[in-house]
Write a structure and sequence with these properties.
The protein has seven helices and five strands. With 217 residues, the protein is of the alpha+beta class. The protein has two domains: 89 residues, Glutaredoxin (3-Layer(aba) Sandwich), CATH 3.40.30; 116 residues, Glutathione S-transferase Yfyf (Class Pi), Chain A, domain 2 (Up-down Bundle). A five-stranded mixed beta sheet has the order 1-3-2-4-5, covered by helices on one side. Strand 4 and strand 5 form a beta hairpin. Helix 4 packs antiparallel against helix 5 and helix 4 runs parallel beside helix 6. The longest helix has 29 residues.
Length: 217
């Protein structure tokens, strides 16, 4: 199945992204491109049907992971942030990965911290506890999923503290760090992980970011 993202900029020809539209990592890229106004072709790869494990996809990404950006010359770029970096270089405005050396370093730092401490923890809860993942995550280790619930909560507490003196996670402007955090926070709903009411700064941030048009990408 081919789907297309609404655009403000001319379509980039002979470029497409392989994705699973329900998965969090492809959504990170879609939000990033929506913020840039970039229009691109998407090709659906159904993870639950095992399409990512088939030989034809192994030629696209031997690690069997999504998303993957295919360029016109046949180059394949996997990893969400690497794909975002490619488009940041092509379309530097609005800057979502920083302009100055300091901004770039801080945004990269916060993006990685959110990815490793929050998004990854929620993903482990999903992969090791959700019944639908039993045939894909072999073996499922329920205890590891439960342990990551506490890790996710700790990361949310940390994020709430980060937001005590700023509007956005990495500083004064919206960035890829906010995108990763939004996707992670939304993904927690699948596992019924609640944001504690006392984390008012995080709850307020989530409401603001969810109101951006790109959040529906």
């Amino acid at each position: 199945m081919i789907c297309r993202q609404t655009a403000k900029l001319p379509r980039i020809e002979k470029v497409k992204i392989y994705q699973e539209s329900r998965a969090p990592n492809p959504r990170r890229v879609r939000i990033f491109l929506a913020e840039k106004g970039v229009d691109i072709e998407y090709q659906q790869v159904n993870i639950m049907d095992g399409d990512h494990k088939k030989p034809e996809f192994a030629r696209i990404n031997p690690l069997h992971r999504l998303p993957v950006l295919e360029l016109g010359d046949g180059t394949m770029i996997a990893e969400s942030v690497s794909i975002c970096r490619y488009f940041e270089e092509l379309h530097p405005e609005p800057a979502l990965m920083g302009k100055t050396a300091k901004e770039k370093a801080l945004i990269d730092m916060y993006q990685r911290q959110v990815e490793f401490n929050l998004l990854a923890a929620i993903a482990m809860c999903f992969r090791h506890q959700h019944p639908a993942m039993a045939k894909l995550e072999v073996p499922q280790v329920a205890e590891w999923g439960k342990a990551n619930h506490d890790r996710a909560l700790s990361a949310m507490i940390w994020l709430n503290d980060v937001l005590k003196d700023r509007e956005f996670i990495a500083g004064d402007t919206f960035s890829i760090a906010d995108i990763t955090a939004l996707v992670a926070i939304d993904f927690r709903k699948v596992m019924h992980i609640e944001i504690p009411d006392e984390l008012d700064l995080l709850n307020g941030w989530h409401k603001r970011i969810s109101g951006r048009p790109s959040s529906s990408a």
